[in-house]
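This part of the workshop introduces the protein records we will be handling. As an example, a complete record with its sequence and its structure tokens follows.
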Amino acid sequence: MADIARMADVDISTVSRALADSPKVTEETKARIRQIVEDTGYVVNHGARMLRNKRSGQMLVMLPNIAATFFPEVVLGIEDRLQEEGFNVVVGSTRNDKEREDSLARQLLTGAADGVILMTGHLPSELEALPQYDRRVVGVSRAIDNNGIPQVNIDNEAAASTATAHLISLGHSSIAHLAGPAGSPTFRARADGYTSMMQASGLTHNVSTIASNRFNLDAGMDSMRRLLAEKNRPTAVLCASDEMAMGAMQIAREAGLSIPGDIAFIGFDDIAFSSVVTPPLSTIRIPRYDMGVMGAQMLLCNLDLDQAKPDSVVMPHELISRESSGA
């Protein structure tokens, strides 16, 4: 690689970044280096590079459910950024099982993975015994109750307040919240945002929360059945996820309710199907791909012990108003 750098009149690190297609190198410089590589027949030995750096060349992404529609776009952002630096990405689904989680976490302990991106909302106990574990772990999209771990997220409490305020602005005062797992900081924050906006709007007496230990279609259906069994039916519902909202709307239709005429809905996440369900679902958009890119960049910086630990990042959310809320 030193010969390539000399011929291209750049330093070795620039050659390395160019061959990894890093955005830090101009397209003109990349083209010049690639031409020299082609002319000389140079082959990048990623294995040797990782051995020199005492790294495996793999990053682990841990998420609770690989089938959940929220996560793929985040993972895509993570992969795109890490592959620019020559890292492979391994995705592990914990299925909310502690043994699976600990087994995956041991990849960091054994050196099979250089760093971990947690999308589970908590830190595996296996990692806490690792020296400087906070420099090899970041959290993305699901808040972790550990201020020592750099994290990328939105302000979930503010986002839920935005969604609740949207329903109030449309004339609703009887608004229920179908909440996610109470043990998750993310879903607790969403429930808190709903409650705080209801209280700030003088609607404390109308606060109604039904919690579930899941946040998928089935959870939305089950929670909506419980809600409709109560004496007073609300005129609007804030759901903790889009999947929950879709399940809840199905139960509302089965009960003969029109949407949004009889009951309005707003979800959370803006997954791909949100705009094509009937009626299209109002929701809170989360910049999932950009969140993944930012999380990967944060992990790369965190692994560099010559740099200060990166600060956590709060990314913007956006209200997406569609037919389900009656806007």
